[in-house]
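User: Can you write out an input/output pair for a complex, sequences first and structure second?

Assistant: Here is one pair. Inputs:
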Amino acid sequence: MLGPRQTVRLYLIEPHRLVVDALRHVYAQDPLLVVVGSSPNVNEAELASLRPDVIVLDIDGLTVPIEEVINACESVSPQSRVCVLSAQHRPRVMQRALSAKAAAYVVKDTSPAMMLEIVHTIARGDYYADPRLAGAMLRRRSTRTSEANELSSREFEIVRLIADGLSNREIGNRLSLSEKTVKNHVSHILAKLKVNARSGVAVYAVRNGIVN
Amino acid sequence: MRTYLIEPQTIFVPYLRRVLSSAGFDVIATNQGVDVRDISVHDPAAIFVDVDYLERSGPTVLCRIREASRSAAVIALSEKNDPMFAATCFISGANAVCSKSEGEDKFLLAAKRAVTNQIDALALRR
């Protein structure tokens, strides 16, 4: 964790060159921020050797779940704090990012000055959630996600695969489970989510941000 | 050259302003893309529009821009590297469609070609 006047070393994970240049331009306004590197995706070797204080991760256009990318960052550079950057004003996306241990969720319509402040905030060990989305996120956590909290991690995985359109047999092959075991899991999921069919599970997954 | 910038992602506005002004595009007004009717008041010669994450779809906003300004060169900027999307943007009124995957040199090249009435087909060739 850094003190208030210490230099913060940043690493950008951003697939678009023009956006990388724009972010570098923003951070260059603050002499206490140094961009030590950038990459279009999680470059494990570079992250492990650079060990940045803050990783700025643009999640727009990701083809894999946000959680996977944040976990990958955390596993190769555990001391880094992840600042998720997105254009999405969606409480459920912010909730997923913060649940996956991101330290901040910043919407791209935030002012550059605020962005600089947020980076210092999380480098000091604090957290940042976009205040426009925080209220809705808290309401969601206390009501609509209560069913999801009852799902086991295996059931969560199966919900995600059902939403991807996989059959019980395909899910079984993917998770090395028998078709009958998958069928049992699906029955439990239907009961916990209080829905009657797989399509209801898929709708639930999409509505609650379990799948992109 | 009088330039109007539509960028819903505020965080990028200072950078785009700097890049554009370094190439002779004088940004006279910026807009987050919710309502573009004031374009006709400013009468710009060039309009840059980031078509990602606008309140309405990018092509819809491009049509509105064209209604507000028949003569300005319209340069669309997008994260999408999709020829079909680029074609839709052209049909909706863009003179150039630039990908954010390219650096500022190619972005400015496309912009300069657009203001001299050369339709930029880089995106379509991908």
